[in-house]
Amino acid sequence: MRIIRQIASWFTLPDLRNFGTVLRLCLTSMTAILLFPLISGSPESYLNQIREHSLWVGPTLLLIIIKGYFLSHFFSPPSYKEYATLVAHLINNVIFLLVDDIIFSPEFIFNQHFFLFNFFSLGFMYIESARRISLTPAVSEARLNALTARIRPHFLFNSLNAAISLIRLRPYDAETLLENLANLFRAQLRDSTQNSTLGQEIEWAQEYIAIEQIRMGHTRLQVMWQHKAPDDAETPHLLLQPLLENAVFHGVESTHRPGYISVFTTHKKHWIYIRIENPYVPSDNKDTAKPHKGNSMALKNLQERLSLMYDNDAKIKSVEENGTFRVDIRLPYRKKSSDLKTLFG
C-alpha cells in the first residue's frame, strides 16, 4: 500500500476530458516522434522512421484519449485515487499491445516500441504530477481567497437584525430567513475542494436572494431566473452565490432605486453558459446613488478556481456597459451524480 501511495505521488493521471491536457499530450507525442529518429542512430532514413512510429503512435494515442474521456468518472472517487494511475497505465499498455500486435510482428520492433511507449507514458504522467505540484501555492491561495470571499459580515448582521424585527410581526418570514441563512452557512463550511452541481448552486443562490428580498423588500430587489441547463452539471463549489452577493451589494444597495438582477443558464453542445446581469453605478455618479467601493475579489477567486479545475476550458469575463454589469461564464458540461450526503455533509 505504501508503494502504491508513492507511485500516486510521483505520477499523476492526466485529465483527458480537458482540452488543454489533450493538446499538451498530442504536442508532446508529435515532438517525440520528430526527435527520436535524431537520437536513435538508426541507419534508416529520417522520414521512414517518422512514418513507422506514426503508424503505431497515432492509433494508440487516439484510443487512449477516447478511453480516458469515457472512463474518467470511474477514477474520480477519492477511494480509487491511489490506484487510478496504476490501473490506467495497465489499460494503456493493453491498448498498446493490441495496436502494435496488429500493425507489427517482429519481436525486436515490439521490444523497442514497448520501451518507448512506457518511457513516454510514465514521463508524461511524471511531468503532469510536477505541474500540479507547482500549482500547489496557487491552490492554497485560491482556498484562502475562498475563505475571505465568503459571506460578508454586514450581510450576516443585517440578516439577523431583520429576523429579530420580523419575529413578532411576520414569524413565517423570520423562520424562512433563518432556515435559508443556516443552509447558506452549511454550504460555506463545506470543503471548498469538493465540487458541486449547477442545480445545487441555483438552490443556494435562490436561498440567498430570498434572504435579501425579505430584508430589503421584494419591490426593491427583483430577480429573473432563466435556468435552462442540466441540474447535474458539475461546477466549482459556491459558483453563483458570491457573484449574486456582489450584484446585490454593488448593484442594488448602491442605488436608491429598485434593482433588477437577471440570471441565465443554457446548455449548448458540450458547454454550460451562465450570465448574471445587475445594475451598474459608475463611481463618478454621486447625484443619484452612493456607489460602494469596487471589490473584484469574488471574480478573481472564481477565475483562479476555474483555471485550477478546468485549465483553459473554462472562461469568465465581465463587462460594464449602458448601466449594466454583466458576468459571462463558460464551463465544460460534465455530469455529476447527485449525492445528498456530500451536498449537506
TrEMBL record:
SUPFAM superfamilies according to UniProt: ATPase domain of HSP90 chaperone/DNA topoisomerase II/histidine kinase
Organism superkingdom: Bacteria
Signal peptide stretch: none
InterPro entries: Bact_2-comp_sensor_kinase, HATPase_C_sf, Sig_transdc_His_kin_internal
Gene3D superfamilies assigned: Histidine kinase-like ATPase, C-terminal domain (3.30.565.10)
One term of GO molecular function: phosphorelay sensor kinase activity
Domain annotation Signal transduction histidine kinase internal region: ranges: 142-218
Transmembrane annotation, as ranges: 21-41, 53-71, 83-103
A GO cellular component annotation in the UniProt record: membrane
Keyword tags: Membrane, Transmembrane, Transmembrane helix
Protein name, per record: Inner membrane protein ypdA
